[in-house]
Amino acid sequence: METAAAAQLSHAPSGTQWTIRSGGHEAVIVEVGGGVRTFTADGRDVVAGFDEHERAVGCAGQVLAPWPNRIRDGQYAFGGEHLQLPLTEPERHNAIHGLVNWTRWAAVEVAEDRITVAHDLVPQPGYHWPLRLQTTWSVSEAGLKAEHLVTNVGDTAAPFGLAAHPYVLVPGVPVDDLTLRVPARNRLLVDSRLLPIGAARVAGSEYDFTDGRRLGATVLDTAFGEVEADADGGSRVEITAPDGRGVTVWADAAFSWWQVYSSDTLPADRRRKALGIEPMTCPPDAFRSGRDVVTLDPGSSWRGTWGIRAI
Questions:
Q1: What is the set of domains in the chain, with CATH numbers?
Q2: C-alpha span between 221 and 203 (Å, rounded)
């Protein structure tokens, strides 16, 4: 029989909560969206989370699939078919952030230091392919890690992309005072609907964070590409405070784009309090441009891993 406390928890906006712990690190994973609500290292907040009875403010900690970011007018073509997605960002007439960030995910394996959550995406208007999505969240002395596995369980090829949407911070340090490092050679230019209309080199511009520099008053909601890979083929974005504390968000080679968002359009109590640092497999509007879209053949799977660690 379900207890009153359990009923209250499971019916909260973020659903059931699962806490994982190891090596002084602790994270809370939520049922709604299957994402991360909080993450701390030795008691220090590493991500700007949200209360368990709130919705994920600004998509905090969510998994974004089967596409990240925006699709112009929600329209695209694939396999000779023209498709129309629901306009989930109606003020800009876009489809945004996929189809799984406001759905319930189920726990399939739970341990002290890790949890695997899964969601079965059913065919629907605008996206006709069934996918099985799994994320294994784990914590250790190395920080928080997310391992994604996505399988096309249908009988035709499917277009696919994925991103994650954590907000990271150094407690007590204003965003303006953080040094930001983004190892990318270009950025996308966008229109008033935040959709790409071109690209520009960052070298020598206010968007050049390749060697790390203070963010200051720079406003970012920017997709960075031509990422310079680390020796292992992956890449990482870093923030550092004047006292040396910081956060690294890293991703393997499955993610070749980074979106950095300075939170200027969030509610006043969250505005410029943390940086959205989002590993992405493809850029905004990729279902229309085709750029870096993954084609998942029937029965095939995609894997990608990223994580967060405190400096």
A1: 4-310 (2.70.98.10)
A2: 18
- Alpha-carbon torsion (137, 48, 30, 124), positive or negative: negative
94 in Cβ contact with 83 (< 8 Å): no
Q: What is the mean pLDDT of residues 108-124?
A: 98
Taking only the tens place, the pLDDT of each residue in 24-66 is 999 999 999 999 999 999 999 999 999 988 999 999 999 999 9
Q: Give the span between the Cα atoms of 293 and 67, in whole angstroms.
A: 9
Beta strands (DSSP E) in 61-166 are 62-64, 70-72, 75-78, 81-84, 94-96, 106-110, 114-121, 131-140, 143-152, 158-160, 163-165
Which residue(s) pair with 256 in the sheet?
none
Q: Which two tokens stand for residue 209?
A: 């964070």
Residue in 238, 232, 191 with CA at minimum distance from that of residue 214: 238
Report the alpha-carbon distance of residue 184 to residue 225 in Å, rounded.
Answer: 6
What pLDDT score does 52 carry? 87
Q: What is the pLDDT of residue 1?
A: 37
Phi, psi values for residue 151, rounded to 5°: -125, 135
pLDDT of residue 53: 86
pLDDT in tens, 86-98: 999 999 999 999 9
The 8-class DSSP code of residue 123 comes to P
Cα torsion angle, 64, 69, 75, 80, sign? negative
Rounded Cα distance, 21 and 31, in Å: 17
State the number of CA atoms in the 13 A half-sphere of 211 facing the CB: 4
Which ranges of the chain does DSSP label H, i.e. alpha helix?
4-10, 286-289
How many residues in the chain? Answer: 311
